[in-house]
Structures are given as structure tokens and as C-alpha cells.
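Escalation from tier 1.

The customer reports that the assembly of two entities below gives different C-alpha cells on two consecutive runs. Tier 1 could not reproduce it. I'm attaching the input and our single run for tier 2 to review.
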Amino acid sequence: MSMPDTESDFLRRVRPSDWKNPTPRNPYDLIIVGGGPAGLTAAELAARDGRRVALIERDRLGGNSLNSGSIPSKAIIQAARVLAFLRDEEDFGAAAFERPRIDFAAVMARMRRIRSRVAEYHSIDRLCAQGIDVFLCDARFDGPNTLSAGDSQLSFKKAIVATGARPERSDLPGLEQVGYLTSDTIFELTELPKRLGVIGGGPLGCELAQAFCRLGSQVTIVQNDPKFLPHEDRDAAELLSLSLSRDGVITRLNTAVVGAHSERGAKCLDTTSADVKLSIEVDEILLSIGRVPNVENMGLSAAGIEFDTARGIDVDEFLQTTNVDVYAAGDVCQSDQFTNVAESSARLAVHNAFGGRTERQGHWTIPWCTYCDPEIAHVGMHVREARQQSIPVKSFIVMLQDVDRAITDGLQDGFVKIHVREGTDQILGATIVATRAGELINEMSVIMSAGIGMRRLAGILHTYPAQSDAIRLAALAYLNDQPPA
Amino acid sequence: MQALDELPDEALLDRLQRGAFSYLTEYANPANGLVCDTSRAASPCSIAVVGFALSSYPVAVERGWLSRADAASLTRKTLQFFWDSPQGEAPDATGFKGFYYHFLDMHTGQRVWQCELSLIDTALLIAGILTAGCYFDGAGPEADIRRLSDALYERVDWRWAQNGLDRVAQGWKPECGFLHYGWEGYNEATIVYVLGAGSPRHPLPCASFPAWTLPYQWENMLGHDVLYSGPLFTHLFSHAWIDYRGIRDAFMREKKSDYFANTQSAIAIHREYGARNPREYAGYGRDLWGITAGDGPGNKEMRQDSRDRRFFGYMSRGVPYGPDDGTIAPWAMLATLPFEPAAAMRGTRGLLRNYPQVCVKDRFSSGFNPTLGADKGGWLSDGWYGLDQGLLVMMIENYRTGLIWQITRECPFIRAGLIGAGFSGGWL
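Tier 1 run:
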């Protein structure tokens, strides 16, 4: 069977079938193990600085983000959004029309085209053109400054481990036997599952539950907590819950999956909620209970690099491992497993490897987003964190239903919530729930990084009408709350 | 009989308060003092409704609706039932560790519906028991009431309910043990921690109240500062017993507010939300509000003005984050009487004038949705819910005479609980 052009183009960019590893040019200034967002960033940065660089990737370049994370999931989510929008089109005055039939193969083909296109920006050809030696094989440290890459023996002055993380497996009885999908495999589906069971109500579980429901699957999501997204703002999580239900997702909160079995050709999830036992029959299962760092089978101990299979590689504030010549970056050592953090940590690791340990991590303003509809985005502190640190905090809320542009667009579900250190106008953090919260939160990120307080923010002109005006309105609420001078 | 909305304020309140109280006797089992959760056929007892009823009997005595002897007799019988009823891990017991199951068989007192041993509902029951113990200060059966009241309170093992954590669990079941979520963050459960802190035998430790307040969210929304909780009833339930005016815990000292003022803020937000009416539901306005927990139309959908409307059944509705399906609780505005009397009366009068069907036999129904089936007067919940009626009796009385608050201010356990939770100032 011949492979579709899109897929062969994609593989040509991320793992050509006829690839031959280069002849080593030992010693390398920098060897990077792992070709995901952190590894690619580090390799390109070091090469631009004139370093002799080798990049080793055991699978496909691009890591989780490109292959089975951000890019494919957002492509599918957008397709699902468009279909949901068509569902509501009559609300905007369109005459009633027959609902479009879902062509799942076309949705997945579009996803693959997008993935292939994005892959071009860091393709293997481009890396080579920058002078980077790319090895597509397993890597294994065999000494403090040496490692094997397939059949080649490499030596380095400095190294960065950026092997990322993978979906956490589960030892639930029967689950392995019935078979399940993870983020690594769900994007390879060729048919839309009629019934999909999602285990885990974290970001990925919620995103894909909603998207597959909108595409036409009957989706049940099971979460062993009182709310989805347990680390997010309570009100945001409750809005998400309502949104999932409105789309038709069957939500099972406070429910644990205790096992799985096959019955009449279907997969059954055995669940308990307090004393209520329920078997949920589905055609496919998506396991989405978190990610674990890739630290095994790399000879880390031989290089004197300490690690923990759950926590990842031990690094100090400069991202240096217990081997002074080896740094780590990205999901393999970071608790915040986001692409933006991976890339930032890679830049920091390169800088510290060659610049003498001068930049510390820990002071980043990290925005993140869960791409449900509405999206849930956050930056900085949550109220609970502030209160745990005895910081007096007050939040200024603007509901999107009170924002002119959200009203005109019919996109009123959501809010902007800015947390302020009480008695000052210092912004501690913000949560935004909106259709494009992932875009809006970046304004808050810039504001916080620039040290802009609520007083200045209130005076910054925004386009009118705009959903981002909700941010200014929150600052205005702060001003109105101040005692008269 | 004169239409309600034509009555002067005092006469109107008298009718509505007495109407609400009559539920608590009409739907009670006089043999054991248990009171029905709702007026619907085969309704079990809700222990929380019993707590409201026990607190309402003194009101009825003072207002001449019940003789003191009858009230004392009924109260003693109720307390004796709870003292004698089986406590243990058996699935059909009445309670365990001094706590009680949420719903009980009206005749046998046995657990029904495989419900949970409920922390909040036990607290509301115990609050009623302590109110009775303080009010009935005479001899004979009244002395029995005091003895039983103390014993029932002292038996509650609040520390067990922590299940090894700082906060208390929401409940427990013999089939599965503790429910794995606890009471944290602001809502109706402040009274759980106050009563737990005041216990002479099983007091909650000092770390418990801070665990409850840690997730508090002090928010400025719709022009008002508030310790946020969406459903209106959460700003009323603990307050029915505790006079929060001028007393402050650590959080309220930091915010220079108190829980009474906070309820006033919540009311202002609910009214502002009603005026803005972002989802354009029928009837909403600054004088028609009251989004809270209560009965609802059920899983129904309708198409209206080129948009889909979706409705829910019994659930906790809130402002401004929702959920909001256009359903209000007709009793809710009146229940805010001690906090914002003018707004409560104006709203209630408007409701009675425009939608008189929400008040039958001088009792407000649990839920009303003027959007759904607007051509037929809207959707209305069948019958009445005991919680609504009990809360109304107490809140109207707190507005009229402050009786409940006066009683509980003298309750040594509640005082000790408030102090233990870190409250100070004002009448403390």
C-alpha cells in the first residue's frame, strides 16, 4: 500500500526512512538527547552561536508537541469547533439547513496536512543546513562525557537531556487486555469511534472529550475528582463542566475507573462513585491520566546524572544535573510540562552551559491554556497559592456577558479574573475563560512581565469593541474600588 | 381571604411566616418529630428540615401558634428519638458516630435511599437541637430537652469526620467509607466548623477552620466586593442561626468585613445580575432575583428567539458564573429579609403581584421558571420543600425580633465554637 503524499512528506521532515547517521565529529561542543521542542530549540541556538552540535532523536523530530500533542489536537479541536458553530448557526439568523455530515477521514487528513506543514519549520534538512549533526537512533550515556548513538561513539564538552515525557500507563485490571488509546495513538485513528470513554479529566482528556463529541462520538469522561482540571480556578472548571454537558459529553465526576473488560465485542469500563458501581460500554478508550518523564534506558547513572522515574531528572536552578557538564530541559525535568516552558528552559540550559551558570529558572511568567470551548487560560498565581503564602489577595472579575464584543459575537461564556495583591495594584495572576482565552492570556503575560500594575493597565487603550477590553474593564473595576483621593 | 400583595408589611409577614411554619407541623410525624423533606407523596424525612423545625417551635410559641407545653413535648419527643435511634455501621441505622443520615424513613427513622451520613445536614439538625436546648429553660420536659440537647451534641465525633485530614469530609457511607471530597471554601457549611470547634468532647483542632477558609476567594464582581459563593442559600443557612453582625474571623478581619455584610454584598450582586439579565430570561430584574439551590424544570430544551434554551432539574444554581436556566427560588428574596429588608419586601411583593401562583396556602414553592411555558404562566415546582419553609420561619423571625439570634448568642457551645474558629469582636 502506498503512503499518502502528506504522510511521506511528514516523515521526510521528521524521520526519513533512508536516513543515514553522519560520521561523528568528536568531540562535540554540545550533544542534545531528544529532538522535541526543547531539543530543537537548544540545537538551533547553539548552532547559531557557532557550536559543534549533535542532536539525537530515537523516534520522530518534533516531540510530543508536533506528533501527538499540541499540533494534532488543535487541528482536530478546530474542526470540531467549526462543526459546533454550524450547529448554532441559526442563532445568528441563518435559515435552517441540513446539518453537514462528518467526514472523519477528512478531519484526520487535514490534521496530517497541518502537522506536515508545521514540521517543515524544524525539518531534518533545515537542521542539517544549520550544521547540526542529526542522529536518528537510541542514545545511551556510557561515561560522564561520552555516549553511544546507535553504532557511533560520541563525546561532548556539554550535553543537554531533553527526552520529554510520555503518557502515563495504568495498571488498572483488564485495561491492557481490552486495549486503549493514549495521546500517542489517538491521532492515528482512521474511523471515528461510535462511543469513546475518556479516563481522566485533565487538560488533554477534556479537550479531546469535547472535540470527539462534537465530531459525533458518544463520549463519556470519567474523573476521580469533584471537578475537571483540578489545578485550575474552581469557577473555570465549573464552566467547563457545564460546557461539556451542553455539548453532550456524559460527565462522571467523583468517579473512579477500577477495571476494564470486554463484553459482546465492546470495551467496558468498570467504575465506582462512592458506593455506586457502573459499567460504561464503549468502542474505544482514551487513557489520559498524566505524563511521566522519559529517563529510562539512557545510561543516566553511568554519566552520574541523578533522576527519579516520577519526578524526572534532578536539576538545580540553573538546570544543571548532578553531572556538571550535563544540563536538562523540557518535560524531562520540569513540573510545568508545556511547550513554551520546554523552549524557554532549553534556551536557559544552553546559556548556562556555555555562559557560566548565570541565569536561574523560577522567575518565568508562564501562561498556559486548556483548549476546550471555551478555553481556560491562566498565568501567574492562583488565589489558593497566594493565600498559602499569606499574601492578601483580591480578584477583579469581568464577566464576558458584560463585554460588548462578546455580546455582539454571541460568545458570552467566560470571564476575566485578575488577582491583585491587596493594598497594591500588583498583579499576581489571572485566569481567563473565553473562546480565545489562549490569545487573551498573552496580554496578561506581557503586562505581568513588564511589571505593569492595575492603575496603568486601566489607562491602556484597547480597540473597541474587543473581547480583550474585558482586561481593561477589570483594571477599571480596580480603580473604581479605590477610595477617593 | 385578602390577597397577599394587598396586605400591609406586618400582616403580610405574619401570613407568610405562619404559612411556612404550618408546613413543619402538617408534614411532621408527631410520634417522633421527623419532618418530610418535601410535601410530595412518600417523601422521607430530611434531618436538616428537622433542625429548622426545632428552631421554629420557639418562634411558634412566642407568636402564639403553639403552646409552650406542646412545643416542649414535640421537641422532647424529637430529641429522644434521635438519642434512642440506632447508631452504628449497619446500613439501615439512623446514624453513626453521633452524625445522622441525610434522609430517614418518616416512621422507623431508618436510613433510606442508601443516602450518606451527612456532615452539613447533621450540623443543621444539631443547630436546631442546641437552639431548643437554650430556649426551653424550664423544668420537667424542658429539663429533659436540655439534657438531651447537650448529650446529642457531645456525642458527635467531629474529629472522626476529618478522616485524618484538616478539613472534614462531606459524608460517609457504610458501603464505601468517607466520600472523598470535603467541605472546603465558602458555602453553607460554616456552621459545620463552628459547631465542630465548640464540641466539648470531640472538638475539631485549630487547623480545621483555616483548612476550610484556605480556598476562600475575595472577589470584586458586578461592582461589589464579596467572599464568593454562587448560590444564594449558601449566604443564608449558617446565618439563620448565627448572628454574624460585628463578629469576625481572621479572614473577615483582613477584609474589614463580616459574614453579615458579605451576605448583603451577595444580595446586591444577585440584584445587579437580575437587572443585567445577561441571558435574557423572562421576569428577571433588580426586583426579581433569587438564584439558588432548588427544584427546576428537569432536562428540557426549547427554542426561543432564535436560540436554544436548556433547563435543569433540582440543582444548585448560582450567580454570576451560573448555572442559570431562568429558574428562581420564589422564597429566596424573602429569606434575605434580615439583611436587606427593603429589597426583600419589594421583590417579594412584586413576585406575589405578577406571579401569584408561586405562593399556595401562603407557602412559596421551591422553583419557578417564567421563561419555560411562559404562555401558561411559567413552570412551577410541585408542592413545597421543607428547607425553604424552615428557613423562612427563622429569617422572618430574625428580622422581626431577632429571636433565633438572641437564643444562639447565649448558647455556650456556639460561643465556644465561634471563638475556637477564631471569631472575635462584636457581641462575642
